[in-house]
Amino acid sequence: MNSASALRERMTVESADRTRIMLDAAPMACTLRDINNYILDCNKETARMFGVGTIEEVILRQEEFYPKYQPGGKLTSDVLKEIIDVIVDEGQAKYNLTYLNAAREPIPVETTVSLIEIDGISHCLVYSRDLRSANAQDDKLRLTEHALLLKQRHLDIVSSISHLSYWEWDTEKNHINFSINFTEEFGYAPNQINTAGKYTTNLDLTESKLLDVVHPDDRKSFIHDLLSCFESGKEYFRAELRLRHKSGEYLWVIVTGQIAEWSVDKAPTLAIGGIVNINDFKKAENASNAKSSFLSNMSHEIRTPMNTIIGMSELIRTDNLDEQQLEFFTDIKKMSRALLQIINDILDISKIEVGKLEVTPIHFDLLDLLDHIASLCRFMAEGKGLEFIFEVEPGVQRYIFGDDIRIRQILTNILNNAIKYTREGFVEFRVKPCRKSKRRYTAFIISDSGIGIKEEHLTKLFGEFEQMEPGKNRDIKGSGLGLAISKSLAEMMGGCIEVESVYEKGSAFTVLLPLLEGDPAKLPHPLASNTVSTNGNAQVLVVDDNSSNLKVARAYLEKFNIKAELASSGAQAVDMASQKRYDIIFVDHMMPDMDGLETTHALRSLPDQWYQHAPIVALSANAIEGAAELFLENGMNDFVSKPIDTASLSKVLAKWLPRDKIIYIAAPEQGERSSYAGESAVIDKEYGIRNSADDVDLYNQLVANFVSSHNEDVELITRAVKDGEFQLAIRLAHTLSSSAALVGAKNLSRCANQIVSALKEKEEMPSVPLMTGFYAIFHEALHELQIMANDKKLKAPEEENPSFSRKDSLELIDRLKPLLETGNASCLDLVPEVRKKLSDLGSDCEELIRQMEDFELDDSVNLLEKMRKAVEAEA
Questions:
Q1: CB atoms < 10 A from the CB of 447, how many?
Q2: Which residues contact 371 (CB under 8 A, 6 or more apart)?
Q3: I need a labelling partner for 774 at 20 to 30 A (CA). Which of 205, 585, 679, 747 fits?
Q4: Following CA atoms 520, 525, 526, 529 in sequence, which dihedral angle do they give, to the nearest 10 degrees?
Q5: How far apart are CA 594 and CA 587, in angstroms?
Q6: How far apart are CA 28 and CA 49, in angstroms?
Q7: Across-strand partners of 107?
Q8: What is the pLDDT of residues 629-662, one digit of tens each?
Q9: Buried b vs exposed e over 54-71: b needs ≥16 C-beta within 10 Å?
Q10: pTM of the prediction?
């Protein structure tokens, strides 16, 4: 062999070796096959793919690596035959095939085949890529895509339920995309509103289709919100505005957004966010506002006649009524106050709903408050034949800093329910200190032997307008608001109400309140109606469009020696004030033409500097929360609610009248004695009447009840002590103390309390001095109360009708005529004189009085002229 041949042979061998090295290093299986697909040679990757150790093993076992069927269901032999036909025809082919490895596990393979010639014989060069790892990645990708689609679907569902449309805004390209829910909420296809504005160095909204559907009144604030976000670097913005639905209706929405991407020069390039449809909430809010407005108006409309009914019933004479008429009159008073309480309950619930009910704490005497509550409830309970038990355990704080009115409201509501729903047995009211969760509370426990509550009803017990078993208890009246209000009030004070009940056996309500200790030096000393008066020179104007309200206000002011002038409109009040200085002006809130606020502004604008600071007091039946603040904000100085309360009116007069026109009437000294006709140190009648809700008839009933129920208490207590029945003696003395306080027998109440304390301290007869004093005070008080109970007031003799005076009658007509012509409400002051001096004119006199009282003053001028002619014609 020559050197050239040897060289070629060596190069061929070296080339084959290099080819083998390259094939073995390839990461893909490579096989050399004949035209019938028989493997002649392969690389090491092929052996690894089939899970065998050597190339020779691949060649020897190659038949084992074909499954009988491919995943599509075809025979592998048929598939291979089709592939070989393609290779022969086209010289190459690419296909997927599934093999089996040595462990009989499927191997998905992507195969590329090229037809080549070796020594003139056709061979197949086959490259096979194992797809198992790729398929695994594809599966992961598919799972991820599926999860994303699922999340997208969930987001679409949540968006639909919550009325949320989300969006992406490319601020460089002026393009905005909306979610599919945008169509459902606003009627537009997502691509119908596809521009929102561009941002380069500033925000350009000239081509914003989004801004086009924003309500014109909301665009300025919306642009401001966007600019403040984009230009100040804040990432978040929020705006509440109205968007136009495709139908043309504007819907309230909240638009929120956040800058998601920024450019290199810190300009926002992508914002994402959402649009929430809050139109339903706005409708509810508007409905709530409408309800508040309705309640405000209805409060005024209802309280105005209630003011007249209650006010006049307090002022009317009753000594000339027969027994049946007096009973009817008493029922009118009771029912009007009951109606007023229902109105107050409804207003309280409305305040609670909008979070405007307030708790106003003061320093007060808790034991005094409890005695008042217990005394009234004892009277109600014993009237039904129930035993009423009241006890305050040692350790209860006496002086409290809290809202005494709201505490009274809670306890009275629950006690009244206990009495109403108990037909026989007892009602017990017990007060004691307690601890719960390491916190101190005062526990007010009210238990009864009443009808009880079914277990299934306990959960709705504190619901509004809820009444348990209304069919069974239809004889028990109530609005169903008391417990709901009580629960809310207790929670506002940091407490709670717990209830336990056994159906048809009774219930126990426990009110837990974390009461703060009060300062006895700061206890208020409210002015009673007889502790302040005037010297008769106070100048007071009352303004009200309702003639009945004017009568009531005038009558109340007369109690304070004030002869008030009256105006039936704001314009008339301003005219009267421009001619005279008034010390106080009471102005009704709701009047036609010029309401109370407008009247106040007009009064403040008068040239007289006095009216820039003169006291103007709102006189209003509007009890909605915030009314007082409204009056003060509009230039008024104070507020008196209608129906008028004498004590409140007294405070206002004492606060605002000039000091030189007020007369303070000192309360009697403790040891001062006077007869029953005046103020008695034995019986404080005014105190007793206040305890009776200022109801004189109720007070008289309480006096009669005390005389009939407690006239033998001293003997009963003495006998119980002698017999060793100390608990009975304590209960009798305690009951006597509460009842005595109720009717104003203060000394007897204090002495009975001393007997209770002495008996509790050591169970034996109290000291002789204490018992002797007790006997004397008891019989003295009983004697006074018996006089009051038996006192039959004689009817006042009717005043004789004086003889007719032509001169006096004409003089009265001359004084009355200008008042009627100018519409001056002070003409009502002359009604008694008209009735006295013009009564001989019969029906004309009564008609004139009616016209004056109803403010038909134009007609009354004509009638007065007719009456003048009749008087002048008298002989």
A1: 20
A2: 737, 738, 741, 749
A3: 679
A4: 150
A5: 11
A6: 9
A7: 99
A8: 778 778 888 888 776 777 778 888 888 888 888 8
A9: ebeebbeebeebbbeebe
A10: 0.40
